[in-house]
Specification:
The structure is a homodimer. Helix content of chain A is 37%, strand content 19%. By secondary structure, chain A is an alpha/beta fold. Chain A has a domain of 180 residues: Aldehyde Dehydrogenase, Chain A, domain 2, CATH 3.40.309. Chain A has a 7-stranded mixed β-sheet with strand order 15-17-18-13-12-19-20, sandwiched between helices. A 5-stranded mixed β-sheet of chain A has the order 21-6-5-22-23, with no helix packed on it. A 5-stranded parallel β-sheet of chain A has the order 9-8-7-10-11, sandwiched between helices. Chain A is globular and about 75 Å long. At the A-B interface, helix 4, strand 5, strand 6, helix 8 and helix 15 of A face helix 4, strand 5, strand 6, helix 8 and helix 15 of B. Strand 20 of chain A pairs parallel with strand 21 of chain B, so a sheet runs across the interface.
Amino acid sequence: MSTTLCGGHFINGQWMTSEGKPFQSINPQTGEKLPTVFHGANPEQIAQACESAQIAFSKTRQLPPTQIAQLLEQIATEIEAAGDELLQMASHESGLPVQPRLMGERARTCGQLRLFAALVKEGDWVDARIDRPDPARTPLPKPDVRSALEAIGPVVVFDASNFPLAFGACGGDTASALAAGNPVIIKGHTAHPGTNELVTQAVQKALEKCNLPASFFQLLQGSGSTVGSALVIDPRIKAVGFTGSLSGGRALFDLAAKRPDPIPVYAEMGSLNPLVILPKAIENKTTQIAEGLAGALTLGAGQFCTRPGLIFAANCAATDSLITQIAQKLAGQKFCMLTPGIRDHFNSIVEQFATINSVKVHVAPEKSGAAGTGAFLLETDVKTFLTSPALQEEAFGPSGLIVRFDSIHDLSSLFTLVKGTLTATIHHDAADDTVEVAAAFSQAAQIAGRVISNGYPTGVEVCHAMVHGGPYPATSHSGFTSVGTGAIRRFARPVCYQNLPDTLLPETLRDLNPRKIFRLVDGQYTQNHS
Amino acid sequence: MSTTLCGGHFINGQWMTSEGKPFQSINPQTGEKLPTVFHGANPEQIAQACESAQIAFSKTRQLPPTQIAQLLEQIATEIEAAGDELLQMASHESGLPVQPRLMGERARTCGQLRLFAALVKEGDWVDARIDRPDPARTPLPKPDVRSALEAIGPVVVFDASNFPLAFGACGGDTASALAAGNPVIIKGHTAHPGTNELVTQAVQKALEKCNLPASFFQLLQGSGSTVGSALVIDPRIKAVGFTGSLSGGRALFDLAAKRPDPIPVYAEMGSLNPLVILPKAIENKTTQIAEGLAGALTLGAGQFCTRPGLIFAANCAATDSLITQIAQKLAGQKFCMLTPGIRDHFNSIVEQFATINSVKVHVAPEKSGAAGTGAFLLETDVKTFLTSPALQEEAFGPSGLIVRFDSIHDLSSLFTLVKGTLTATIHHDAADDTVEVAAAFSQAAQIAGRVISNGYPTGVEVCHAMVHGGPYPATSHSGFTSVGTGAIRRFARPVCYQNLPDTLLPETLRDLNPRKIFRLVDGQYTQNHS
């Protein structure tokens, strides 16, 4: 194991330890504790981090985009330079394999840092708008009004257990918050503190090389209920990014809403991700769907926010065969989950499902080792699903619950019950009834952030058009995405300038358009001068 | 007076009365009750309106933009056709003069309806994004990912007391929510129920002429604490627009945050609107500023959310003269306020200001009549302002509090105390220190939604670049505006489509770009085909 860990927090450019509640990460493969002892940050350290972030903000909010882009690119370079040590640490702390998973996750992490670098260099994201004046207008002259998005202030990011790199200390939330010019304080997940320390070392090097304020990025280790809560209620914090459980995200949302000055908590809290298979798709693609679905249910040991754990399968001649084939693929598979606690929680929820009348168990393995489990496959009917609220809970792990439906009317009832979800998927075939296909897609769009045709939701492409979001309880605000370049919008606000001399305007809004960005001038998009 | 009022609610296309708590509007000029007796909507009516709105949503969410535009334009036409009767009613219920105020407000109301009609016809607002697929990419094929903004569902709009038309039943919140395709339920303000009934009659005609579902727009009369609260917690409601007091907005925000499924409340809750006058501006433009400021303090009897009630004036040779001139202009002016209650609240707050040690009273009139008052002008020093939280409360009415500051350091401290505000204004002169001018603008931008140079914040231009928003407590979410075309963003959410056949995509995202809108294709803005 690495000998470079200090077990501390990174505050205002310094590594410092504390005497708070001690904890160690656990290798879920072996159940052994990793050697470094970490401690929760104390209240003084939390306050110091918030104060430092606020001070840094006065500089970072007006950084030229080239400097922010350089930082994001340098962080990516340093994360890559952290090499095997980082990958090994992440693997030891998460049970996820280095190859291909963590290699791929690192590539995604660096890719999204570079995507945000490109976004801020290009600059169009600020949604610059200019309405030109008309001094001759009656009864009142029309003023010169211009607006663009600007940074909001210190942001707290809770890193997620299930993607120690891509949704970790320097994952998508952090990349998007930094890209907008906001200082970020990470509340490190207690399952992978060593990974967070190594990532933070990489960011530290990047900040030094780019000659930027060290408190642009800070790391506090500790639990959500103490360190996390204290950060969310600190008056210097202006927004929160979170990926995790519904109970955790809701607790932070509630804390932030009760502040004297409420702030937004952008919480992505997982979801049911219904996947519909229409009759002709089942009949004509039985084997193909069985294979794809078994893969999507178990990818990353089923620990994806987008795992399609709820399967609405039309009742047709091939449905039994489909279920049998999925069951055959799942039976006997072994998985190591992220933590013993996540494994225990997962198994207990699915085992509870299995006790409900009219729930048929196709595959139900035993626990094994420190964090080991297998894949579950259950089945029930429409009526049981509609009348059993317990079945509408997310089981975070490698499981699938199939609900067999007979009519499009039943499918509509099922959709109505799924309140808000990150994704909804429809498998259909050219031979399926086109009216029914269209109706299913229409209902899917009303409950989901992303609608998928004939595929699987588990891959969340990091791009401009991605929406990783959706109505509550998928997220705390359906107006935003936490993946893709649109994620930057969460950490910015529009600021408007009226009748300012050109020299006092931000560059984004000056007459000669020095950043050469697309601007909405008198309602028309243009890259020309105003 | 009009004889056309039924005193009822407009629910699912029908006018219906109720037996709830009776109320009548009061003519603030005379103190007399207007003849029509209204009643608060009962719980069944509230539920019926929410249910009707939800049913309407399945149709309105997919309306072609031309139909929505036609509706918005027809509403404007019908509001104009309501003619003098509407203007007279609004004047009787608000004390605001027909000419020029309500004539101007009606023009603004119809203007913003037509602006949103133009916006949805043009269609660019949906922020369409397309990332094209790459089946050959390794290790995984790149999917086809497309997203655009869509309607969210039934929206409740609380109309504001101070602009019975422009922020009323068919004001900016309603126009933007309808434009996005959302059914709207109005919680009518109890100060002008007759105005709301007449506006709703106009909308009813427009809905009929456009052959659209009647429950696209509904009106419920009654109090905020009963009818308003019940609407905000109804599970069918997906967002709330509000303009009013901090206490009222915060109460609704808190209710919505406590829902099992929290929804956004976009509350604009007024603000202090600091106006800074730098030394050379005072010296070189004394009379001009005195005149402008006296006008801005008293426009609409001071009942603008953007009234610059807090004036940070540099201490220089001309400051005494400036204050004297403002005082002379304010002294003896008489105003009729919107309601006796608003008048009483205003007078009691300002009179409390006057009791604070080191607060100097320049002008302090007596109450008169049912809702009559005069303009107040008070002055204090930096230390008193910084140490008197009571002085940081908004006094909604024709008053100004001048804080005289000696140094740029003092000004910085004053800015730091003003937490979040709709506007911040700087009066400066070419002879002012350029570093100090830039510092003032930088601080202004950090606390305000709109920053104004050498002008007054009271005119809120309805245009593309306007931001009527700002950090809490100016609004409940600084990421949005409630005036201008950007206001539509509050009532929409991005929906993403992955690998859908072209025929199943919304028109906004189809290959041939049938709506000819600007789209972000692979990160580049284009109006061409994808």
